[in-house]
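Try this one yourself first.
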């Protein structure tokens, strides 16, 4: 995984969630610019995400 793409996506997700935990959402994917990045921020702060573009970002952390 490209760490710069990961960092950019994580920052965009946290900005979209406005510091909330226990939430789900979606944003335009900052990595591929064409897909939608679906995310969930757990109550413990763990972020899981996946872009709907094949081969793009996806992680559970």
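Now uncover the answer:
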């Amino acid at each position: 995984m490209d760490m710069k793409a990961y960092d950019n996506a994580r920052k965009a997700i946290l900005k979209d969630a406005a510091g909330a935990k226990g939430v789900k959402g979606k944003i335009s994917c900052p990595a591929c610019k064409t897909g939608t990045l679906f995310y969930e921020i757990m109550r413990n702060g763990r972020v899981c995400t996946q872009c709907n573009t094949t081969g793009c970002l996806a992680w559970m952390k």
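Discussion: Residues 3-60 form one domain. The chain has one domain: 3-60.
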